[in-house]
Amino acid sequence: MKILVSSTLMCLALMLGGCQSAYYGAMEKIGYHKRDIMVDRVKDAQESQQDAQKQFSSALEEMQALLHHDGGDLEQAYNNAKDEYESAQSAAERVSDRIDKVESVAEALFDEWQQEIGEISKSSLRQKSQSKLNQTQRSYQQMLKSMRRAESKMAPVLTAMKDNMLYLKHNLNAQTIASVKGEFTSLQTDISSLIKEMNRSIDESNKFIAHMEP
Questions:
Q1: Helix (H, G, I), strand (E, B) or coil at 30
Q2: Who contacts 44 (Cβ-Cβ below 8 Å, separation ≥6)?
Q3: Which of 20, 25, 113, 173 is the most buried (most CB within 10 A)?
């Protein structure tokens, strides 16, 4: 069902030329509201973080294998590490893209919610709806802050990976590999910290989804 809906969304997005307001309006006509879109996008962001965790771990493993290379094809070991680094880079880009999409729909949802509160004539109902909106926004901001904090840890790790891969590329021999082993100890610590931060972000996402879903 989700695959069918996702395909429908993609087709409509292309037809609408990226106009978000028209996009959301079209989705509502088929019973797919901003709240539903937001929950799905948060889940997509979670999936991208989980994938990034695996990719960063795989990149570290291949780099460690390169550092402890003992015989065999040294260039192949380097290429394996390089491929995993590039996969981690792509995974990080997907994380950022999906967080941006969460922010986009959140802004539209909260704006609409606030506008509709103003249309409620009964003050008691208006106050209850405003209270619910405030609670949802607080939960959202806590989740988004956690997402962005985890995201911010990816760039320094990728930069360190890139520096070491480029250095090794230009000096691919046993002596050069031995000279950068200390760098990888620090990198291992940074990746461990990144994965823990992503786990915290995923936990916050689960709390937000529970808040949003009936």
A1: coil
A2: 98, 101
A3: 113
